[in-house]
# Entry
Amino acid sequence: MNQIGIGSFSIISIMSLFVGAVTAIQFSYQLEDSFVPVWWVGYIVRDSMILEMAPTLSCLLLAGKVGSNISSELGTMRISEQIDAMEIMGVNTAAYLVGPKIFAAIFVVPFLIILAVGFGIGGGLAVGIASGTYSIDEYVRGLQDNFDPFNVWVMYVKSVVFSFLLTSIACYQGYFASGGALDIGAASTRAVVFGSIMIIIANLVIALMIL
# Structure
């Protein structure tokens, strides 16, 4: 949990802060010459961060950072015969090496996503006030308008599914790696690519099933 969650907090918070700020600025620009009130920016930033930006972008980022790390770690243990030595001693290596990583990700990633939503909303508020586009009251009114708690549940489902996918795929690629250093690099690349693709596909499937 420390490696996956605490170690990824800084990059997730920075990414979410700027994504929320960019979303707010772009939508306020689109609403500039329309009859739509500016407080809708808060509404748009809130729902976009909860439903899409925070869970999907954060887990894509984690697929690159955490997925490559896990795959490289297990791949190194495989080609250096550390896993074989554990199996000879009667250790269930899948449960000992893979299980904790998957369970840790499923537990800690949803908390990262919640923090990402908070940072994204805060980024939208900060950039609006700094640029003078809208006031705090207008932004907060948009945040409070027509809030549906069901969206938070969807966010939680996405975070659990995505965290399982990115860690399980990375563990598989590393656990069954073979060869030398180049093969570890290839396994790490496959872990990132396949994990990212599966997250995008799962995102569509969840949207079709739930929303």
